[in-house]
């Protein structure tokens, strides 16, 4: 059993206090998937008498643009049909017909493109990434009896998995919307019912050294989300593309309704970890922080100390719970911060911890990348130096045979 966290709350470490400015990203009428019809252009006619070839039909591409959203795409192209241009016919003045005009579908960064059967065609992970989704038909030529071929017809699905630095993970009513409002001056709808967040809300923290951290408040999990209960996969698919997780739990625990069991803060952490683990082990393995919210409530300090004792000594308490609730590997939190999204307690420390954690992981990733590049260079040099020896050995063997 791994420990739940690396840095105990009371083991204070020096954290830089970064100047912060906040920007809100509005996501009204959020659209996270689209179904589109695509067709490559038909090829051009060949010219049998002179052996001329018709031009190839245009191709249909999906191209990533940072400022595009699926809602904008849907509004701009309500018919959701994308057809590329036809190839030019071969003629006496131009025996080789020109290629048809390609069709480009502008899409947001962070798109997964699948066909009608759910097979992944590709992903758009950065600006100007492009995926061929419908190929144009060949122009008429000798092999086709100079008759052109039709372009590929394909139904595709664009599925947005948000790319954010930090994804807020918590059961309904944990205070995620209030927390996002506090750290980003966002104004998500916050009400006294369980499913406050029905669509993703994004907030961006901008630092004076130009560092930007994007935080996503995602629709709340419930028990059984991994089998698509509640918002299930609609939530979990967005978590996949966050660099880091920020667990947000109510220090007083959680109860979805009078018909569901009450869960303590410790149980909540176990269940959240279990849901992530059952959905995708890689999601559970992401770097994580823990924000223990609602510290302004009466008795919160005692409950927080009880939670810390449980996190420090999990083996002393796990036997109290059903085995199906216990994850195979418990979450390892890098920082645990008590906060109140209402009063602002701990919010500055939380922001600094997020920044510190992301910077440390970025440094480690850069080190790992440089080490890999160096290793590849060493392997390349070893192979290049050994090649002349291999040729000499073959020559020597040939002489022996003679």
Automatic annotation (TrEMBL):
GO terms for cellular component: mitochondrion; nucleolus. One of its GO terms (molecular function) is magnesium ion binding. Residues 164-359 form the OBG-type G domain. PROSITE patterns: G_OBG, OBG. This is GTP-binding protein 10. It comes from Myotis brandtii. Residues 28-163 form the Obg domain. It comes from the Eukaryota. Transmembrane segments: none annotated. Keywords: GTP-binding, Nucleotide-binding, Nucleus, Ribosome biogenesis. It is found in: Nucleus, Nucleolus. Belongs to the TRAFAC class OBG-HflX-like GTPase superfamily. OBG GTPase family. GO terms for biological process: ribosome biogenesis. InterPro entries: G_OBG, GTP-bd, GTP-bd_Obg/CgtA, GTP1_OBG_dom, GTP1_OBG_dom_sf, OBG_GTPase, P-loop_NTPase.
